[in-house]
Design a protein that fits this description.
This protein is α+β, with helices and mostly antiparallel strands. It has five domains: 3-92, 3-Layer(aba) Sandwich (GIY-YIG endonuclease); 103-216, no CATH class; 267-377, Nucleotidyltransferase, domain 5; 393-571, Nucleotidyltransferase, domain 5 (2-Layer Sandwich), CATH 3.30.420; 582-634, DNA polymerase, domain 1 (Orthogonal Bundle). It has 21 helices and 23 strands. Strands 13, 14, 15, 16, 20, 21, 22 and 23 form an eight-stranded mixed sheet that branches. The chain has a six-stranded mixed sheet with strand order 4-10-9-8-11-12. Strand 8 (267-275) and strand 9 form a beta hairpin. The model is unreliable at 156-179 and 255-264 (pLDDT under 50).
Length: 635
């Protein structure tokens, strides 16, 4: 063991806290919590204690560690969870799915409560129902509630505690259609904003909607059946049919709630299935005694001792709703501290149970059986996916002699003879495209077809910003008349250029000038414009063209090219259409935008008939005729 590491171990306090393991590149390998930091961290560096190959591998990479002392184990758990989510260390067991689920919210804290779909619960005195694990199901329920009770959905309004005759609630739609409510006219809202319902009647509908969402459907069905019979007796068959359809919709929604519990509590039932280094966690969501959905989650197993405990902490650390009861398929050693953590988040006592007998055990067994089925069914798919992503990244690491590549950023330039120079940046994390981090650059400093100059500007803009991080920051570069400052780079990415030596050297010059340390490689193409290999450290590295690493590089290069071309085409089309249409009398910004959306190119506009211009772009007759005649006279 490195002598400095031995000395640091001696300094560890006998207190609770969080420890962070780092490698030679200062990359975080693992984050853990401890009741006693000294005992816990020292245990990693003892020999012959049967830790397992994954922990042994992690320990062999540790160059240093750091720790944060906390007042309690609960504080350590919260801090550990936050650090894992932020840094996603390689050797922590990770929850691979980062999903949020929709809720139906009724804002009972407002004078005229509205109904909306939200993704997060807040402590705002509103009523929340869910979560719904199926987005189509929540839309179906919302549509049904709109037809039954007509609660408003507008969000740009002023509410009042007075009667409906007081100043009206205004919506975006009403501002353009004074004195009307579009939702009211399509029978989706009772329109308190235009005095179509009294406050008392509206609040009665709110109570009925809450009752419906709480699972009490019998009263609604009974009421609808009575209305249907009355309409039939009065020969109002159309209204009777509407009632019949609503009853069928209610049945369709309620039939999806197949499992019922003798207890009306909200609960989650969680079971895990493992095979080798793979695991699947199955969760059943039970609300008001009915199972509203289920979901499974893949776990990337790390050096953690308890996968299920890690899942519970990460899953509920990232969700806003925590049920009163959580049932687990197996014991976890830190159940008391996890219970305190969940109770603190919920604001009331949470019961974490491991059922042994009765109906609760049968539900847990059912969840475990489902988890094993998913794991077995998807085993080959998971393995193939890992080969294409993490396996491919590992191959690239070995090829380039790098370690811990979790993020790759690829750049490409697109132009037509220097017209509308643009650049793209695509991002892949752990071998998968991360489209939320993609960026487009419209080149500002290059007028002609100079790819090197365009790439130089792009790399400068990638690593700098017009905004200061701190008041005393000094500009590092002036670009297109703007002072720019260095940005934070949370993860050291591998930069991939679309090209060989020339493009790589341009990026290295910029990176050197900015004083940052980021590896740069080039994705080289052959004479037929197909990916040939990778250029790194002034050498084109030989690479097996059948390997997953090569296939990943090809996917990244193709994606960077596609993204750049798509952006360039959109600018070119807009500029072309805009410049021509501006010469036509009667075509202003709104009509020009409608034409640009309806037709892919100026040639399509030229060839369009008057009727096509009217139908596709929604133009009035006089404008369509003006455009049609303009191109005919011009030719």
């Amino acid at each position: 063991m490195i002598q400095n590491l031995k000395e640091e171990l001696k300094k560890l306090p006998d207190k609770p806290g969080v420890y962070i393991m780092r490698d030679a590149d200062d990359t975080i390998l693992y984050v853990g919590k401890a009741v006693n930091l000294s005992n816990r961290v020292r245990s990693y560096f003892r020999e012959n204690i049967g830790r397992g190959p994954k922990i042994d591998k992690m320990v062999s990479l540790v160059e240093r560690f750091e720790y944060i002392v906390t007042d309690s184990e609960l504080e350590a758990l919260v801090l550990e969870n936050n650090l894992i989510k932020e840094h996603r260390p390689k050797y922590n067991t990770m929850l691979m799915d980062d999903k949020t689920y929709p809720y139906i919210k009724i804002s009972v804290n407002e004078d005229f409560p509205r109904i909306t779909i939200v993704r997060q619960m807040k402590r705002d005195k509103a009523r929340y129902f869910g979560p719904f694990t199926n987005s189509s199901q929540v839309r179906e329920v919302m549509g049904l509630l709109n037809k039954l009770y007509g609660l408003r959905r507008c969000n740009n309004m002023q509410t009042t505690s007075q009667a409906p005759s007081s100043p009206k609630i205004k919506t975006d739609i009403e501002s353009s259609t004074a004195g009307s409510c579009l939702y009211y006219h399509i029978h989706q809202c009772s329109a308190p904003c235009i005095n179509k319902i009294t406050k008392e009647a509206y609040m009665d509908n709110v109570d009925k909607a809450i009752d419906f969402l709480s699972g009490n459907y019998a009263g609604v069905v009974k009421e609808l059946k009575a209305k249907m019979e009355a309409y039939s007796e009065n020969l109002e068959f159309e209204k009777a049919a509407e009632c019949r359809d609503l009853i069928e919709s209610i049945k369709a929604v309620t039939q999806k709630q197949k499992i019922e519990s003798s207890s009306l509590d909200d609960k989650d039932i969680i079971a895990i299935a493992r095979e080798g280094e793979e695991a699947v966690v199955q969760v059943f969501f039970v609300r008001n005694g009915r199972m509203i959905g289920r979901e499974h989650y893949y776990m990337q197993l790390g050096a953690d001792e308890e996968t299920l405990s890690e899942f519970v902490k990460q899953f509920y650390g990232g969700t806003s709703f925590i049920p009163k009861t959580i049932m687990l398929s197996e014991e976890i050693s830190d159940i008391d501290i996890v219970t305190d953590f969940l109770s603190g988040k919920r604001g009331s006592k949470v019961h974490v149970l491991v059922p042994k007998i009765g109906q609760k055990e049968r539900l847990v067994d059912l969840a475990r059986e489902n988890a094993m089925l998913v794991l077995t069914k998807d085993k080959n798919r998971i393995q193939n996916e890992n080969k294409k992503t993490l396996g491919a990244v590992s191959e690239i690491e070995k090829l380039l002699g790098l370690r811990n590549i979790s993020r790759m950023e690829a750049f490409d330039i697109s132009n037509t003879s220097g017209f509308e120079n643009v650049a793209s940046m695509v991002v892949f994390e752990n071998g998968k495209a991360k489209k939320s981090d993609y960026r487009k650059f419209k080149i500002k400093t290059v007028a002609g077809p100079d790819d090197y100059a365009c790439m130089r500007e792009t790399i400068y803009r990638r690593f700098t910003s017009r905004n200061k991080r701190f008041p005393d920051d000094k500009p590092v570069i002036t670009l297109a008349g703007e002072e720019r400052y260095l940005v934070d780079i949370p993860e050291k990415p591998l930069i991939l250029m679309d090209g060989g030596r020339g493009q790589v050297n341009i990026a290295l010059e910029v990176i050197d000038e900015l004083g940052i340390n980021v590896p740069v490689a080039g994705m080289v193409k052959d004479d037929n414009h197909r990916t040939r290999g990778i250029y790194y450290n002034n050498v084109e590295q030989p690479i097996d063209t059948t390997s997953e690493g090569f296939k990943l590089i090809t996917r990244i290069q193709d994606e960077a090219h596609r993204f750049a071309i798509t952006y360039h085409r959109s600018l070119r089309r807009k500029d072309q259409v805009k410049s021509v249409l501006d010469d036509i009398p009667g075509v202003g910004p709104a009509r020009r935008l409608a034409i640009m959306k309806a037709f892919a190119s100026i040639d399509e506009v030229k060839d369009a008939s008057i009727s096509e211009l009217i139908e596709k772009a929604g133009l009035p007759n006089n404008a369509a005729e003006a455009i049609y005649n303009f191109f005919r006279n011009k030719s």
